[in-house]
Task: structure prediction
Amino acid sequence: MSCLVIAEHDHATLKAATLNVIAAAAAIGGDIHVLVAGHNASAAAAAAAQVHGVGKVLLADGAAHGHLLPENAAAQVVAVAAAYNHILAPATAYGKGVAPRVAALLDRAQISDIIRVVDADTFVRPIYAGNAYATVKSSDSVKVLTVRGTAFAPAATTGGSAAVENVGAVADSGVASFVSAEITKSERPELTAAKIIVSGGRGLGSGEKYREVLTPLADKLNAALGASRAAVDAGYVANDFQVGQTGKIVAPELYIAVGISGAIQHLAGMKDSKVIVAINKDPDAPIFGVADYGLVADLFEAVPELTAKL
Amino acid sequence: MKILVPVKRVVDYNVKVRVKPDQSGVDIANVKMSMNPFCEIAVEEAVRLKEKGLASEIVAVSAGVAQCQETLRNAMAIGADRGILIESDAELQPLAVAKLLKAVVEREQPRLVILGKQAIDDDANQTGQMLAALLGWGQATFASKVELTADTVTVTREVDGGLETVALKLPAIVTTDLRLNEPRYATLPNIMKAKKKPLDTVKPADLGVDVTPRLTTLKVEEPPKRQGGVKVPDVATLIEKLKNEAKVI
Ligand SMILES: Cc1cc2nc3c(=O)[nH]c(=O)nc-3n(C[C@H](O)[C@H](O)[C@H](O)COP(=O)(O)OP(=O)(O)OC[C@H]3O[C@@H](n4cnc5c(N)ncnc54)[C@H](O)[C@@H]3O)c2cc1C
Result:
């Protein structure tokens, strides 16, 4: 039995989510091979070879993978897929683009967002915004899976010494091309990997207030900044801050929800956090139902006080 | 140009679903059903493209039980021109839906298919990408901006690090994210008009598609309940608890 992990990377380094997927593959068992489809990506392949538990790295290096387009990535996975029983990708924007294409090309079902491996055919996944957990068994000979990162502790980045094997890169599909990217620059920890997250909602009132009130607290705690959908829709912060059912799934040690009511779609993205703090002026806000520590207060007074006293 | 918009009937997003005591699934008897919000955004986008003169006809298609007609009427009230129901009482998994849609695409020959990025019931986030793969088309998932010309669609996508823009040759697949648009409310006159728009019904067998599920749900459980904690009286107590009790700062 063997697993193929589709690595998410930026050609030079592996994205942290890849390590969670390798951990999920380890829970399934058997050999773990990692596919790095990139351009001038030998550094990312070398990093994958170091990861604990990895048996082999397949490097598909070619111009078609320069912008990590899913059309080309999926074709690449299919080109090497024959040897594997399980094909796994992170449940990130990248993995969600590639994995279903792979599944369809192989005529196999996909199980999205697995949070537990029961056995080689059976997996647990959340449905209905995490309000139910389904145990799903696949009758397909090849299982295509995406993995919820927060559910699997990352594999160690060292301890492995896998060989890197070059495989021929596919040609460009010709149907899609990269135009541009506007990547949010931040010195802060990545949202999905942060130990502490300070998250703001509509209660902040504006982008200026969001930054004025939350940034000093996040600085003091070396925290990532997150947001509710309402805060993103209102333009306080960029889309990549959104936590929730249809945004990012996070599970930090500490999640501080400020001016967030706690809609089910928001809770879906953060209720597995170890400790949740809610600061909200409405004592009946649903967020208090999941918060370990609730402070009923005006955030414009409480948050600066918290920042000052830390 | 013709645009195809697949729409799914799901439990309304305001409903908090309950797991059935026998763990066979969630209880959807007598709960409010609506069009999946991401599908609504897809219909709205198609209608806006038509209003700009960039599209000539919008065909809404839904796969599922007979009541999906309501979902199609709703799409037509927003502005779709006609509807196709692929009627089936069977459980339809994303791969089967993608195959059904492929068959419809082959009949209808749209230049663009706009779908929701995910359905809020199974949260699978698969169908659009699967359809794109089956057709050999380009895909732009998580769209927050769509610019259409006669032979390309340029799409700004919400990705984990920010935004990415890609250009696809037509025909192509786009899946919608929340910021693409704000769907209009269907007005009463438009709801009335929608009732008269054509709605065809076909069966999976008519389309030559085997929809046998590949996945079996063994059980559906309540997730572990998070214990609500305590309210703290002031900031000082909060800091004290975080330091000494939770030990997270
Ligand atoms: C298809 C779909 C997908 C969705 N996906 C997501 C998702 O992924 N993530 C997500 O977050 N949401 C999502 N939502 C939206 C969700 O339903 C809620 O609308 C949203 O989470 C509300 O954001 P909020 O808590 O910031 O705003 P509100 O619900 O308006 O809450 C604001 C809170 O701030 C408090 N407040 C106001 N002023 C102050 C003050 N001065 N001091 C202290 N507290 C104050 C109020 O008491 C209130 O509780 C989705 C919705 C749909 C339909």
In short: Helices of chain B lie at 37-51, 68-78, 94-108, 127-135, 188-195, 235-245. The pocket of flavin-adenine dinucleotide is lined by residues A 201-203, 228-231, 242-247, 259-261, 263, 265-266, 269, 280-282, 285, 298-300; B 13, 37, 120 (CB under 6 Å). Chain B has one domain: 2-222. Chain B touches chain A through 81 residues (CB under 8 Å).
